[in-house]
Amino acid sequence: MRAEFEKLAAAGKIEGRHVDALTQLAEGGCCTHRSWGFGRIKTVDTVFARFTIDFPGKTGHTMDLAFAAELLKPIPKDHILARKAADIEAVRHLAAHHLDLIKLVLNSFGGKATVDQIQQVLVPDVIRDDWKKWWETAKREMKKDGHFIVPIKKTEPVVYQAKEVALQDRLLIDFRAAKGLKAKVAIVSEISKSAEDLKDKTAAANEVVAALNPDIVTHLRTQPSVAMEAIIARDEMREIAGLPPVAGEVTAGQIWLQEGIKFGPLMELIPAAKHNRALASFKIANPERWQDILRNSLNFVSSKLCREFAGLLIAEGKWDLLKESLARLINQHTASSELLLWLGRERSDAFADILGPEVFRAMLTAMERDQFNEKRSNRLRDFILEDQNLLGELTSTADIEVVKDLTRALQLSPVFDDMDKRSLLARLVKKHPAVQSLVSGEQTKQDSALLVSWESLDRRRTEYQELVQKKIPANSKEIAIARSYGDLRENHEYKAAKEMQKVLMRRKEELEAQLMRARGTDFSNAKTDAVNIGTVVQATDLGTSQPESFTILGAWDSDPDKGLISYLSPVGAAFLNHKVGDEIEFELHGTKRRHRIEKIEGWVAPEPAPAPAEAPAPPAEAAVTE
């Protein structure tokens, strides 16, 4: 094509300086435009001096050769973009060979490219499944291969070099070139991860230990967290090579025992990957006080550290001490939002005796306190809004009066806007329908009063007390015992106890809702001009001409054999408000019955039966033994 372009230049149709660029475009067949992206050159028209190019969403676009030479960048045939356009399936097949595909991409970008650039060009056209998994595999292979330089920082480019350099040599070169102890520790971590592929672990470990020890000493007081990182990295490297400690070197215990060292803040500065080793060294350095320091630090660290501190206390059998600390902080409403965030996320059966409505009240207090903190975080608030089950689970065993108080506290809390507050209140109503009127501000039909006899009210109250004070606690103990048997997936005792818990909680909620609406009465002075609650109705069955008596009493009074019926029953509701001489109709056991009211009288409660006299003790000779 060069000859044709040179003729066009000689004829004055294009400038001579455009010939090289146009030749590359025509021979490569691919290009990129600053705005339109990748394009494929479909035709070259030397008569009208123009290209026809397919761009994404702009197929068959024509462009004068002069403009093309200025605006388009030629793409060679072996470029990843050209290879994708020519045969995408072949490139996808190449993805199985991670290093070959990465090499193709890097060479397309001049020998180096960032991870983001690599991902952008491969996803989703080539890597259509799990990019992260694919990239982790590719990265491991590149680290082993001597042609690739994989940076620690994601923003730095991956580099391909023609000359092969062994992995250990590359890592040690980077280690020697690292500026500052923090950077050196990062390289040492990479060396440790690649330990299996090192050609001489002992030599590498000796060089690392010798270089780190002087720097650790200089950072001991000025940057103790960095010194701790370096000590942990050094000790890991030594363990990999099986080397003994160097006499006189600084240990992690020495950092913990320094004057002025604050445990929680120092742990926050140490990377999460090194927390376990740091905690182990702290425990060794403080054999008598470590558990107390950990407990006292729970309220001043992040939720992640709360989880790790609690995990260590539990592993060391300090369950009771941990629960004691948590209960005190919650009950005194001094627990931090981060501690409560961890506890809310944990929410396992192991903490069942701590998790309750007071936890949510403590959460409200913590968030209100955080409003005056310059470094406040919304993490706890966001968690409460996102976790749909949190409120229900924390209040599931609570007395209804406690739930009401909590509802009022939530309504008055300034930490949620109106929309979020309504969402949380709706969750409370769903779990505890008895607070509906408190939330809506009005008595709904469902929440209207129930008239009940004092006797039936006493029975329901007794049932509720037995449920709350005996059955539910006994069930909680059964769950704890069953949990101790092991694997919960195959633990039938545990599953049965949890199912019973649901039944008991459902009954508790029903009783609470009923007792909230109940209004006790002795039905005295009931009006008899019409059928009312607390009246006895004498009626005639018009189908059989037989007289019958109906006593209309409270919502929970029902004894058909004695003629006692609830005013809420179909029969009781049919009689209400009718007068002597009225004929009424109701359905009973699937049969329509018709009655005429003959007489209406006030009901008189029967006198309670006298207590039976205590029988005299039998004479000694008549005593019976089992």
Plain-language structure description:
With 626 residues, the chain is an alpha+beta fold. Among the domains are: 2-75; 82-165; 449-521, Helix Hairpins, CATH 1.10.287; 535-602, Chitinase A, domain 3, CATH 3.10.50.30. It is 51% helix and 13% strand. It is built from 28 helices and 15 strands. It has a 5-stranded antiparallel β-sheet, sandwiched between helices. A hairpin with a 4-residue loop joins strand 2 (37-45) and strand 3. Helix 17 crosses helix 19. The longest helix has 30 residues, at 454-483. The termini are far apart. The model is unreliable at 442-447 and 613-626 (pLDDT under 50).
In the sheet with the most strands, the strands line up as 4-3-2-1-5
Report the strand count.
15
Number of helices, where a helix is a run of at least 4 consecutive DSSP H or I residues? 28
Average predicted local confidence, pLDDT: 87
Strand percentage lies at 5-15%
Question: For the terminal residues, how far apart are their CA atoms?
Answer: 119 Å
Proportion of helical residues: 40-55%
SS-derived structural category: alpha+beta
What characteristic shape results from the CA principal axes?
flat
Cα-atom radius of gyration: 41 Å
Major sheet description: 5 strands, antiparallel
Uncertain residue segments: 442-447, 613-626
